[in-house]
Amino acid sequence: MQYMKEIIEDKNLSFASKWQRRSELIYTQKDIDAVRSEWAKFMMKYHIS
């Protein structure tokens, strides 16, 4: 999910450069937890009881 977010937010529109650098990315558990938290907060805005 973090990788997808970075792709979308990147101003460089070249897909080839985005695909090439994917192998250089390393996400820590802290990074993963941050994305999970952000996603959960986003989804809670649209949760209907």
Main features:
single chain, 49 residues, mainly alpha, 0% strand
- Taking the alpha carbons of the first and last residues, their distance comes to 26 Å
Overall structural class, as computed from helix and strand content, comes to: mainly alpha
For the sheet with most strands, the description reads: none
How many domains make up the coordinates?
Answer: 1
Q: Helix content range of the residues, please?
A: 55-70%
Number of helices: 3
> How much strand?
under 5%
The total of beta strands comes to 0
- Rg on CA atoms, Å: 14 Å
Q: Mean of the pLDDT scores? A: 78
Shape descriptor reads: flat
| Low-confidence spans | none
Write the element-wise H/E pattern from the N-terminal end onward: HHH
